[in-house]
Design brief:
Two copies of one chain form a homodimer.
Chain A lengths: L1 E3 L1 E3 L2 H4 L3 E4 L7 E3 L4 E4 L13 E9 L6 E8 L5 E5 L5 E6 L10 E4 L5 E4 L4 E2 L3 E2 L4 E9 L6 E11 L6
Parallel strand pairs in A: 1-15, 2-10
Antiparallel strand pairs in A: 3-11, 4-5, 6-14, 7-15, 8-11, 8-14, 9-10, 9-12, 9-13
Chain lengths: 166, 166
């Protein structure tokens, strides 16, 4: 069974798939008479133009046993999907390029500190993989009419393992 | 100087102004092969229909000294604005009915546990009031062309004070 190398999650490495949501490198602005620091527009929400609307959701995910066997991925062809962790526990992300599924484009990432991700519309991804402890996320995605879920089964399963440092 | 009574934040009490975002009473659904619990559509994001788009933002707010003097409110006439706390520290919300500002419609609320709020489009509100410790929030609102900020000064300042239990 093939093994997928786990990379550190950085904006550059993740750019083919969407955005890393993080404050490192973001520019804060003082607001509310100087009592608050605001970081705006951390990700591009895309709900398409066919009756989509933005949905605010909450997800509580259980930890996954490692190594994990990856045998299927999903995608949302009508909109983006952002995962914003409420804490700073690491989690893993497995993605593949949008369009006709190509197993050669598969990549795995692990977060460090408080990092979230925003999958661009149509990006193939595995369900979030929490490590060690469960985690809670705010999820921002598309709701509305239309089929916004597709699944693909891998020809050959893959193993991913979190070794502590990517 | 008049004093504003601080009420407990509940869905019913807050309904003239928007939605309370909380899991109490929300219906979770098992997803991701049973490894995660998902609560969908916790608030209605409204970005209008004139070139608005959803913006994902982050806010780090300092604590405010009590009692606090309220002398101005703001509103966003083009879209809703949701505040989702990353923790469960209480914070205060001061709001007034949308439309021409009417000081008689002013209400103050304090959160309990992990509660967020979504201001409906055009609802007058004070900047978030954090208590004791600062808090961090994910803010979901509207970005795009158009003036989405109006401010009003109160004829007479008001005092709000958090007494520990609303």
């Amino acid at each position: 069974m093939n093994k997928l190398i786990v990379e550190a999650l950085t904006k550059d490495a993740f750019s083919p798939f969407g955005e890393v949501i993080e404050l490192d490198g973001a520019r804060g602005m003082l607001v509310n008479a100087g009592t608050a620091l605001s970081f705006r527009d951390l990700a591009r929400v895309d709900v398409g133009d066919e009756g989509g609307r933005t949905s605010i959701n909450f997800l509580r995910a259980s930890p996954q046993a490692m190594p994990l066997r990856i045998s299927a991925l999903e995608c949302h062809p009508l909109g983006s999907q952002a995962f914003l962790p409420l804490g700073d526990l690491p989690f893993m992300i497995v993605v593949a390029a949008p369009g006709p599924f190509d197993q050669k484009t598969l990549r795995a990432f692990v977060t460090r500190g408080r990092q979230g991700v925003n999958y661009r519309k149509g990006v193939w991804h595995h369900a979030l993989i929490c490590l060690g402890a469960g985690s809670e996320f705010i999820v921002i995605d598309r709701a509305g009419e239309g089929l916004n879920f597709t699944e693909v089964t891998l020809d050959q399963s893959l193993l991913v393992e979190h070794s502590g440092t990517p």
